[in-house]
Protein: ECF RNA polymerase sigma factor SigW
Amino acid sequence: MYTLTDSFYVGSPTRINEMKPLTTMGSDDELIQACRAGDTEAFRWLYRRHQGRVRATLYQLCADAALDDLVQEVFLRAWKGLPRFRQSAQFSTWLYRIVWNVASDCRRQQARMRAQRQQLPQLVSTAHDPASLTHLHYQDLVQRGLQHLSPEHRDVLVLHDLEQLPQAQVAQILGIPVGTVKSRLHHGRAQLRQFLQREGISL
Structure:
């Protein structure tokens, strides 16, 4: 079956580079406990451990619009929300939920801006000229294809196919039944496959 996988910056850069390897640090739960006790250094480690996947997920959900600001917003919300975090929950699932909320807020803001300016969607590339398509990489085409999907279908494909999260975890993050995840995966993949085929990609 075709899937996509087939195809609070915190601290200065110098300080980040001087940190110990992540393997020497404790688990997420241990770091969270330290954060709750007011240890900001522990939060630096949580940031360093998770910021790569947060950034990648935001890019797929929102393209590159103000990406650094979005990453910062995710970890700012995470820091503020740690006192309410339930230890029985998985930290990565909780963090993905914040990512999804930030991405949703970003998309709503972009939609309002597009309506106000009465312009074509910023997330849809203007490179529809067949001559320019020859210079695009497959990854660029996938990104464009994702932006043609509805937010509901794009969210599920990014979390499941790109981030490789189980369907049950995707359902928990998005607050929808597993059956809905499966349905959106099926339809989203079909739409993306059709887009890529129209762009000359054989699957």
In short: The mean pLDDT is 76. The two ends are 10 Å apart (CA to CA). Residues 43 and 66 are 23 Å apart (CA to CA).
